[in-house]
């Protein structure tokens, strides 16, 4: 028979943690072995004679800490079923004390078995609890589960630890190296070989790391300097130094491969005595991320430049508008000077409206809110309309224009307004960046599948970098301080987006600075057949009829309201003006206007609610309600129409459109066409 002292020695020195508990729910510790005390940092005096759950309480601040409750349940099941109960991979954080005195909970995982112990009379006398600290194993498995599915599958199917390690290392998308204590490389994975080339050397020591070529790319003062052999993360980790991350541009041994930027980390592998017997190196390819970050920095710079340009471009027309307003305030008596001043204001407002429209167009296209009205078009007529729009700027700069077109129609399927906008932007771009007296050539060419429009100029040309970025938002050629070219740098970006919506393409080319530029628009060709493309006559202006309308203008901006009133009166109609919604409701009830122009951004109640109330009043139930607003988004229009508006005008109100509307209402002919 074994000596009891021998049993005690085996228990105390067993390589797996163990303790003996009373067969009661409070589980008082009767005995505990050495390895368990070592794993938990407890002393025998702290444990023996106390409830296990008093020694190892749950973390009150961790709602996910179910270790104590699971262990309690297992012990109760042991007592009730008189059978062993196992808790595989149970999370059970343990309370630790920091040297400064404060306590904290350290996450730990345990593989535990609770075994009932019976005496000769089959009475349950104690519970024998064995536990193995598998914290590192669980954490390693968690890390593996985050890697690619191939790695997890390889790990689960591996038959041996070495085989599993090799499979996982080879499957992860991060370059991995395993070395021994001298720095000799024992194992690499496919991602590492992809970075460095299949024929990379296998050094026998840290001294051989000089064969590996890399330069620092961390943005520090050592940026661009060669990485010395002793500075590679693996070499530092073998010396016991921390090597958590190093950003290095590496030069592969296969010189056909491009240089890559890697984030390299290394960690020493230590034995039980804390001696380093190897190192693990991870190299993450961050080349694309570095390029993306640089792209973001460039985009940020372009954004700042754009904001400065936007301020400049908006201030430019404000200067003559302000001066014209001052002149009008002086009470000019010369009709010619009044007409000239009015023309200046109109031109500058049109210029500002164009800038804002370009911004809104880019936003709508980017968010997929542009709706194309597709039809069969002769692209030659589209080019003609674009030339008509841009001819003033071309002639103002003294350019010579040559247009060459093939015989017969050049039929495409597209949105006439948007395609005219595309070609006009290309022509305007050529005119702006061509010095006075230059040449602009427009060529239309056909092939069986496509219609091409090529715009050539003899302007300032483009660098290779600018050609590559020509269609990016806010990208422009370098300007002089006087900003003579003008614009916001969004025209070509808008062109590219609109062309893509037409299943076409647009490209830029240049032989270099000072040698002109060439932009080529390519659209799918449609068989002309027997149909001809539709002609689009300019809209016919309808003068006001004999009936004089009462038009109610509601706007809390007194200046904007006054200008609308003046325009309405000039058109021969009676204008009423109110600046608050409640006063407008009362005025409408008394005056019974046929037309109401309502600003949407009113105080107290907004324009949509005012429209609903006007519709509810018998006196204005059938009046024509027109929303007047600075918002032009589709959902804003939809909300206004749902509130009862008949029309939606975006500020600034087009005088001819308003005149046409009032003429139609006065004549009582049909339904007015909805404004765009």
From TrEMBL:
Residues 90-146, 246-298 form the PAC domain. Pfam families: HATPase_c, HisKA, PAS_4, PAS_8, Response_reg. CDD domains: HisKA, PAS, REC_2_DhkD-like. It is an enzyme of class 2 (transferase). Its EC number is 2.7.13.3. The modification 4-aspartylphosphate is found at residue 599. Residues 137-171 form a coiled coil. Keywords: ATP-binding, Coiled coil, Kinase, Nucleotide-binding, Phosphoprotein, Transferase. SUPFAM superfamilies: ATPase domain of HSP90 chaperone/DNA topoisomerase II/histidine kinase, CheY-like, Homodimeric domain of signal transducing histidine kinase, PYP-like sensor domain (PAS domain). Residues 161-197 form the PAS domain. It comes from Novilysobacter erysipheiresistens. SMART domains: HATPase_c, HisKA, PAS, REC. This is histidine kinase.
